Each structure stands twice: as C-alpha cells, then as structure tokens.
Please model this.
Amino acid sequence: MTTAAPTQLRVPYVIAHADEVAPQPLWFVRRPLGGMQLAYKDPRRGDAVRGVLRVRVLTNRRGAPQWRKLNTLRQWRCMERMRCQVCGKAATDPATGRIPWIMTDTAFREIPDEPTGGLASAPPTCWACIPEALATCPQLRISSTVCTVARAEPVAVLADMFTPGPGRRAIPTGERNVEISLKDETVLPYALATQLIVHVHDLQPAVRD
Model:
C-alpha cells in the first residue's frame, strides 16, 4: 500500500521569506525647514516613497516562508500596480476592467458614509488564484468576501514609529503597525512604513459566469 505525497502548498507572491530580512541603519537627520526626519545612514534611491521612509527588505524569496508577514516591496508593488498577491501577475480582469479582491475582517475597513468604498491593506487576487486562496488560506476560511472594485489609490501606510535619541539615534517607541495617512506630514517623518493601504472605489459583490 502506498501513501500519496502531500500536495505542495504554493507560497503566495506577497509572503515574506526568512532570508529577505535586511539591515536597517536608521538615524534622524534635520529637515531643511526645521524638525527631524527618520532616514537611513546610507541613503539609497527608493528609500522614501510617497513622503514616508520604507523598511528595507530583500526580494530573493529565499528561506522559510513567514506566513504571517508580507514582503514590503512586493506588497507595495501589488498595491500600486494592481498585481495578484498569490501569483504576482496583473489582477485586473481584461474583460471588464474591474479588479477582483478578497476582503477580510482583518484587512478591510469600511468608510463611514461611503457604502461602496473602503480601505484595504491586503492586495487584490486574480480570478485564476481566488479558488486556491479560498481553499488553502486559514484566515480566508474565517472571514472572506469576494468582491470587485473599479479602482484603488494609495492613501495610508502601516508603520513602526521611532523617536530621536542621543547622537540622532533612532529609538523605537514600541508602536507597531500604526495606520498613518499619507497626508499626515506631522507623523510621517517619524515612521518606518511596512505596508501600503489603498482606498478602493465602487466595491461590489463578485458576479462571474
């Protein structure tokens, strides 16, 4: 009698891997118009995006999957370019121009007085990957609704907070995953962004033949 080998679980494109952790040489610098700004001691192009410093990560997809963590660069890429969080390909339905999205209680929040809009911190999922995602992700079995949206634009970040210390050192405040509007210029200089949040428009229950 033989036993069938277990099905290999595909690691979603957006999931972080153990060997993608990168050094974070942080400190504070003075802003031209006054005040302090969180920065890297060895500045690189792409460190600051949309007015906020972004955590550095590698994108080699090496090491054990970190199932509860998202790779920051891949998460932002999916959010800005409307790519599928499972396969990394374009999520937009070419036939309708709408974007399929699995909304959950932990990654979606309604906006008061906007019945067809909301804030999403998890990227879209293409039609081809939705059945696999629903069947294999434990969180989606707890709460999930398949929807489509007309468009989405970045409006906020989830970030870890820092304060200036002696010698301009960056001291963690202990505040993690703080939601900050991209318009909040008073708080963004002290934030290290980890995830991008988008405002989705014309959210509708999915209807597909």
Observations:
- Residues 125 and 131 are 10 Å apart (CA to CA).
- The chain has one domain: 15-154+199-205.
- Residues 72-81 form the longest helix (10 residues).
